[in-house]
Amino acid sequence: EFRRVLFRSAKGGNFDVKELIYPLIPAEQSQGENVSLCLLSGLQLQGTEGDWLEAAQLAVDWICGSAGGPGDQEAAAQVERVILAGDSLAESTRNLDDLHRARYLTATKDAGSIEAMHQLDDLLVQLAGSVNVDLLPGENDPATGILPQQPLHKCMFPQACAYPTFQSVTNPYNCAVGGRDILVLAGQTVQDVEMNSDLTNPIDILEKFVRWGHVAPTCPDTLGCYPTYTTDPFVIETIPDLLIAGNQAEFAQKKLTVNGKEVLLVAVPKFSTSKLVVQVDLKSLDASVIEFSSTLEVSDSPEPNK
User: Fold this and answer.
1) Listed residue (229, 223, 156) closest to 185, CA to CA
2) Contacts of 187 (CB under 8 A, 6+ apart)
3) Is the pTM higher than 0.70?
């Protein structure tokens, strides 16, 4: 039984709820290893436009250990895996007008996402050459629009797919890294709850997800999902150590204890607007952010003496 609700009918088709009984989700204790996890989301690459591409390249260089000082390289050496949590391509790469035109009118026209996919592949192949990489689809990416979103086809990444360290995965995505159980969302389910409830803080919503035992409570009413008959793919069967939501407005984190297990909740901001990469220490379950800015300020100086 997912949960039991005790209520009675009220006027106007409403219900008076007396008690909510949530599921007792199994919680297995774990011990993290001395490694870290890097999280990016909302790269929103869009071809020739976008002044944050240089910042994204700088972030990739840092993760690969080719940027920064000895301290930065030591921190980068602890990175076990990089997860890109959705919306790697910008919404502008989807030309919705072409969907309503005859095919012969668009046969010789390049899709707006082609150049952006080349840029993404260039970044992914650099990461995959140094560290394990998982790529989730998001709302703006060329994947199935309904949840759970299926992996982006590897033919889109001719360079990165040559590396066994690169994985194109589903959204939501569950994995085990450094002894920790990790559940990642690209962010659509969090944003849909914001639009259909009084909850406005993504961390509060993630906490509700853990306590409800479900990461997509508005499916299929206001958020599309595959029809299922015997199982619900959005049910949390065991309490994760780390629950992540990508494509949020700003970075936030919170630790809570659920059924005797410590859980870290992390909201990952859009890289296109924040230039932030989130790094999680899997031993202590603490998250921190690294900001990457490619802006070079040059001050006026007097002409040298002749």
Assistant:
1) 223
2) 41, 85, 86, 87, 138, 139, 245, 246, 247, 248
3) yes
